[in-house]
Amino acid sequence: xxxxxxxxxxxxxxxxxxxxxxxxxxxxxxxxxxxxxxxxxxxxxxxxxxxxxxxxxxxxxxxxxxxxxxxxxxxxxxxxxxxxxxxxxxxxxxxxxxxxxxxxxxxxxxxxxxxxxxxxxxxxxxxxxxxxxxxxxxxxxxxxxxxxxxxxxxxxxxxxxxxxxxxxxxxxxx
Length: 174
Prior knowledge:
There is one protein chain. By secondary structure, the chain is an alpha+beta fold. 41% of the residues lie in helices and 14% in strands. A three-stranded antiparallel sheet has the order 1-2-3, with helices on one face. Strand 2 (155-165) and strand 3 (171-172) form a beta hairpin. The longest helix has 14 residues, at 73-86.
């Protein structure tokens, strides 16, 4: 669908038609101060097909297997780790989710559900939140939280990882 067709269907305000036309050519556009809200409204109303024709794509989201209950616990843990690894690491200084560990478990699991829903890059503690959510209700393994310090170039990093013990093996997720 062309930008003009999007305007004719009231998906795009007329004042950003030149901007939408430029999108089909290149991604180098400065936004005028009044156009930001119009562009946001356009993106909210547009379908995935409309956005893809303008060169915009949806965020790829990790996919989690559905047959975990029939797998042995070691294979389930590996599947959970693969799913967590599929989320990209958030290398930016900003955080997308609440990283406070001093909260009730229900709030931490709520944050983990938000991570799954949004599919944004995560940091280490958020990977631990995901591991807690994805293994909740598994009765055939022990959970052991392990805290440790790492010193790199004079800077101390403190971490906590969940270790899982299904029988005699030990796995770490996150």
